[in-house]
Amino acid sequence: MITVEHLTKRYGDFTAVDDISFTIGEGHIYGFLGPNGAGKSTTMNIMTGCLAATSGEVKIDGYDIFEQARQAKQCIGYLPEIPPLYTDETPREYLRFVAEAKGIAGKEIPGEVARVIREAGLTEMQDRLIRNLSKGYRQRVGIAQALLGNPRYIILDEPTVGLDPLQIIEIRDLIRELGQKHTVILSSHILSEVQAICESVLIIAHGKLVAFDTPQNLERRLAENNRLTITAECGEEALRAILDGTEAVADYTVDALPAPVPAPQPEPAPAEPAEAPAAEGTAEPEAPAEDGETTVLDAPTELPDAALAEEPAAPAVCQATLTLAGDPAAACRAVFFAFAKAGCALLQMTPIKADLENIFIELTEDEPSGKEATAHESGIQA
Ligand SMILES: Nc1ncnc2c1ncn2[C@@H]1O[C@H](COP(=O)(O)OP(=O)(O)OP(=O)(O)O)[C@@H](O)[C@H]1O
């Protein structure tokens, strides 16, 4: 078990980590989620004993990371955001070196290095120079060094950052495999990544822990924040009347109107040639257009009055952002039928997807006391 109690880190006047407390159990993949600069790396660096805290306590299986650093660090494998790899070595040479530095007994080193090479999927690349490996394989080398000594907790700081989509999938699969034998804690600023891999999510914003929950509970919480944008073919007054009369709409704002779509213009009839074509051989040759030059055709300067009178007016179009009440599907249906009943065409209904930004806006808008409550509500927290 990892317990973090009232952890605070200040850089001068700036508080990067602000009184964070949580408990990490065993046999689980935990995600540290937060935007850039939220304090994830700082927290991870302190948890792994790489950085001193200003105040607070971190215990790894009961060992204080500062007071009993050796025992505590033996329980942890850490992949920092920028892994310190010696690129002129092969993975096998580098891992031997790290194994020695970690104090693994000499006779156990070859077997241990072979094990982590296998587990990290490096078998085919073990004798190639690290500098010639792809970023994905370099990341595997970083993960392999974290696995040396078979620590109970594997802490990975942004393990997929900078990888291509295929490498991301492979590293995520590897992390899932590791999660079967170890407790894995990874940081990420990508919500979908954390949702895809992690069984528990810790959300950090502005150095504070603002949520600690399962992805399912987070999704549920976000789903409750039912919002969608609509575009309707009617005037603002009619739009408001319909929305005001629809119970499933808890709240709405009328958005700025989009630029009116110009009504289709009738194709002008081809102009009659003003003069009969000159007799062959007598006309002055037309100068050819130079490369890249656009030839502008004279537009008819005046439209006949009849054509102007017939031009259909662009229909009024309104946009609004709605917050729905109750079951989202039922609420969408109610909105749809309310517009249909009023004879207004709904041109678009687009759910506002919950993304990381939405969560942070939602979670960080609360008062600090509210945030604390959120973090403790989940029941995961000790
Ligand atoms: N040595 C330092 N001195 C001063 N400020 C620092 C130092 N290290 C980090 N910070 C600041 O502390 C805040 C938290 O940084 P941290 O690296 O922990 O964030 P993060 O969530 O890991 O973000 P990122 O994913 O960008 O690394 C940031 O505002 C950062 O600029």
TrEMBL record:
Residues 259-271 have a biased composition (Pro residues). Keywords: ATP-binding, Nucleotide-binding, Transport. Residues 257-294 are annotated as: Disordered. It comes from Subdoligranulum variabile DSM 15176. Pfam families: ABC_tran. One of its GO terms (molecular function) is ATP hydrolysis activity. Gene3D superfamilies: P-loop containing nucleotide triphosphate hydrolases (3.40.50.300). Belongs to the ABC transporter superfamily. This is ABC transporter, ATP-binding protein. Residues 272-286 have a biased composition (Low complexity). Residues 2-231 form the ABC transporter domain. It comes from the Bacteria. InterPro entries: AAA+_ATPase (IPR003593), ABC_transporter-like_ATP-bd (IPR003439), P-loop_NTPase (IPR027417). PANTHER family: ABC TRANSPORTER, ATP-BINDING PROTEIN.
